[in-house]
Design goal:
Elements: E1 8-12, H1 15-19, H2 26-39, E2 45-52, E3 55-65, E4 68-71, H3 83-97, E5 119-120, E6 123-124, H4 127-131
Parallel strand pairs: 1-2
Antiparallel strand pairs: 2-3, 3-4, 5-6
C-alpha cells in the first residue's frame, strides 16, 4: 500500500429529485463537512457539489492534506483511485440506456485495429466484463516499474 493524502471527495446528488424534499442549505452542508473533518476525523478535506432547483454550487471545507494549508474549492484535484470504477460504470449504464453501446459489446470493438485485446476462456472480453471486474485483465500494466512504489507508484508512469 502506498501513502496518499487522506482526502475525501464528497458528492451530493440532487436530493430534491429523489426525496421530494428541498436540498440542504449551504450552512447545513458546511456543518456536515465540519463534523466529518473536525469531530469524526474522516478526512482532511471535502468538496461537495450540489445541483438542485437553485442551480449548481460548491461547498468545501478543510485542507488539501494534513500539513498543507491550501484551501479547497471546485477546482481542487483529488486522487480518487478506485472510485473511478464507480463513475465509469455509471457512465457506461447511461450509454447503455441511451442505446449507444451494449453490455455485451466486445471491448475490441472500441479499440484501434492495431491493439490486440486478450480473450478470457476463449471469449472476447465485453464491456460488462470490464464493468464488473471479471475480465481477468491484470491489475497493473506489465511495463510498470515505479521508482517510488510506496509513496507514488504512478508518478513516473508514462501517459
Amino acid at each position: 500500500m502506498f501513502a496518499r493524502p487522506a482526502l475525501v471527495l464528497g458528492l451530493l446528488l440532487p436530493l430534491s429529485s429523489f426525496s421530494g424534499q428541498p436540498s440542504p442549505s449551504d450552512a447545513e452542508i458546511r456543518q456536515i463537512l465540519t463534523d466529518r473533518i473536525d469531530r469524526d476525523r474522516q478526512g482532511v478535506g471535502i468538496v461537495v457539489g450540489v445541483i438542485d432547483a437553485k442551480g449548481r454550487r460548491i461547498i468545501a471545507y478543510g485542507s488539501l492534506a494534513k500539513d498543507d494549508p491550501r484551501q479547497l474549492n471546485g477546482d481542487t484535484v483529488f486522487e480518487i483511485g478506485p472510485l473511478t470504477k464507480v463513475f465509469t460504470s455509471l457512465l457506461l449504464m447511461d450509454m447503455v440506456q441511451r442505446g449507444e453501446v451494449a453490455l455485451t459489446d466486445p471491448v475490441s470493438k472500441f479499440l484501434p485495429s492495431n491493439v490486440k485485446m486478450p480473450e478470457r476462456n476463449g471469449k472476447k472480453i465485453t464491456l460488462a466484463d470490464l464493468s464488473t471486474q471479471t475480465s481477468s485483465l491484470p491489475n497493473l500494466p506489465a511495463n510498470m516499474n515505479p521508482k517510488d512504489p510506496l509513496n507514488n507508484p504512478y508518478a513516473d508512469y508514462p501517459l
